[in-house]
Amino acid sequence: MPSIKSKISPCLWFATEAEEAASFYVSLLPGSHIDHVQKNVGDTPAGKDGTVLVVDFTLGGQTFLALNAGTRIAFNQAISFSIDCADQAEVDQVWDRILAGGGSEVQCGWITDRFGVSWQVVPSALPRLLGDPDKVKAERVMKAMMEMIKLDVAGLQAAYDGEVVA
């Protein structure tokens, strides 16, 4: 079933790993899929005739492009992709898949995959807790979040509720 292309699609630049990366990314979230693989037509700086040039894929309803450009330009945290997770089980599942795929933990719910792309794995509860009109509660949640690597919904809720977490 072809997906509806987004008006704007982020394009991720790889040297030669576009198809490998797209396959990994679509394994992270249910309902994600590779939409199309475009091959090089003739030899180009991006690769030889018949090798992968661009991979169109859909991840969590958002379309992306993965481009094999032939040279590597490092990703950095100035651009990241935030994954809205319904609960702790989904946070754990996505986090563990990125980590098991060669990723590295950062801080405050951030993780970098083996390709260098930064992800924010965020429970849906976090914006609600941080946005509470009670500034004291929201500040406790922010402080708790800043001390976490992978976000812990129960820990965030305990901070919100004013419970001391050992």
UniProtKB/TrEMBL annotation:
Q: Per the database record, which ranges form the PhnB-like domain?
A: 7-122
What name is this protein filed under?
3-demethylubiquinone-9 3-methyltransferase (Glyoxalase superfamily)
One family name in Pfam for this protein = 3-dmu-9_3-mt
Q: Which domain of life is it from?
A: Bacteria
The species is Kaistia dalseonensis
Q: Return the Gene3D superfamilies for the record.
A: 2,3-Dihydroxybiphenyl 1,2-Dioxygenase, domain 1
User: PANTHER family from the entry?
Assistant: PHNB-LIKE DOMAIN-CONTAINING PROTEIN, PROTEIN YJDN-RELATED
